[in-house]
Amino acid sequence: MIELPVQRSQLRPWLVCESGSRWLTASRRFVPAMMPPPLSASIIPVMPDRITAAISGHRQAVIVWSIQSDDLVDRVDRIRAVSIASPHVLQIAAVTDLSAPQRTVLSELRVSVMMRHVEELPRWQRLIQGYFADSLKHLD
Known about the structure:
alpha/beta, Rossmann fold, five-stranded parallel sheet, 5 strands, globular
């Protein structure tokens, strides 16, 4: 069976901000199956200081923020900036070593999901499909 190339109108950015590759690898593994057909994810590693430029012009996007206690302040500032400038973006926090009070800070921002382990990502398939459901009505 010949697979047709994905049309640009069917691609949705899935941006991963982390210093390593743990969440990028997990996204590449799990996200394609989580997207509602005919949409596809364009999974891209992005440095936190480039996130605003990366989501510019997109009606929908998902950002996975890898957050550790030593970069919490910077990530909170960037999450808040995205929440204000682009409230339509779905933000996911991948928290590994945060305390309960630190996680509470994130819960007060527009973070839709907090995960500790990469294996949790597929559990959010219904949320992801629901988020992208509206765009299925407007495909070319």
